[in-house]
Amino acid sequence: METPRHWRLKKQRYALIGEECPHCSAKIFPPRDVCPECGLEAKTAYQFSGKGEVFSYTTMNDAPAGFQDHTPYSIALVKLEEGPIVTAQLTDLGDEKIRIGMPVEMVTRKLRNDGDERGAILYGYKFRPVL
Amino acid sequence: MTQNSSDQNDYPVLLGSAVLPIGEHWETSIRDLGGRAIRLALADAGNPKPDAVYIGNAYASVLSHQANLGALLTEYAGLEGVESCTFEAAGASGAAAFRAACQAVQSGMIDVAVVLGVEKITECEDSQAAQIANLELNYEFETSQGLTTVMQAALIAQNYLHTYGLDRSVFKSVAVNSFLNAAGNPNAMIRSMTEARYQAQGMLADPLGVFDFAMLADGAAAIVLTRAALVPAEKRDGLIRVCGSAGAIAPLSLHDRPDLIHWSAAAQSAASALRRAGLRLANIDLFEIWDGSVIDAVLALESIGVCKPGHGWQVDPVRLNLTGGCLGRGNPVGASGVYQLAEISTLLKKEKLENGTPQKALVQAIAGCGATAITHILAS
Questions:
Q1: Is the ipTM of this complex over 0.95?
Q2: Which of B42, B56, B109, B140 has the fewest beta carbons closer than 10 A?
């Protein structure tokens, strides 16, 4: 159980809130203290649209602990419309074959159980093909 | 100290080394593995009295439930009183410890340093060891999404193949080169390989299969270093010297990297090490390149500048990973950097002794799919 961590990350996991650099206007996700574009301090909150496209992807056949229920599952690097790249699972794929450049959008889904079956269920962002 | 001195007498030189066979050492504890490697390396060096033992290890604090290896292993090797601590940089831990030893002896603060790389993987189930390897990812934004080290390599490989319009068969030459070279290394873990066997492998995470990744295994290797000035002139000529050393980092998370397939840390650390050695890539005879996965080797070769972008899979079997690399040797993660350096120095020594040919080698350890790179230039 890692309550402080899950509490701290709720804005990112549920609402995709990152930052906009007040100096160079770069959009940043996940939030960080120093803007990767201009090197100055960044701290203005910015909510991303959740729209983007698949930049790279893979499907895992041998899942780590906590993720076995979902095996096999696919993870992508999703390039958001606003610029940053996010690491996230792809979901609701149906028969659709994943391809680089595929338009996707953020949805909230169960990520995993924290610890055993009595642990908290963690929710967060995943991405699905645009409806 | 950021610049290697131009004074030849300050260069770190290798007095001796030892490597234990890589494998599943069920009967041996991390204490035995580490202690043995230290004592064997000191014996190989003629039993000098060490002033420090620098340890490269990545996972002992979790897999062996053991912190403070410095006190545990160094005392176990019979060196009570000697300064010792651990350096951790995931797969580059051994190289980090070696670089610290170079800085220590070259600066004059330490006269004789032992570098130990040690990793004990087989204390638990395979799945737990694989899980621990994921510690090197960003926990909050990668691991918690279900990303693993294997998937990280696969995401990069997918981007690589897409960018250059290639298919996964290009990785075959990289893997087969390492596996074939390992056949000549008595300390490598046996994993017999043929092209047909490689092609029939199962997919772990597309586009990479089981033989595209080095197997995690136990191992320990050690090297004894001093600076040239402390070695009698008549003995100096036969020793391997470290003429360049440099490390660099890049963003840990793939999503923070502007380019997935140019590894800036690999490029920077190699360029700095060469510059400090006063050498160019064209002067290098042998390359010992990190191949924890095939894509590691491909992108290291391209980023260092040995191969053009998009051509890192066209390997030169005469000069690349003659030891078998991590793929062929097996990968005791935090120890692998010391294996690379110890085994290449043995090859350089042998070539000089048998054929009188002095050679130079570039040895690079990489952690976290390009997040950390540490490069050394060795010369006979």
A1: no
A2: B109
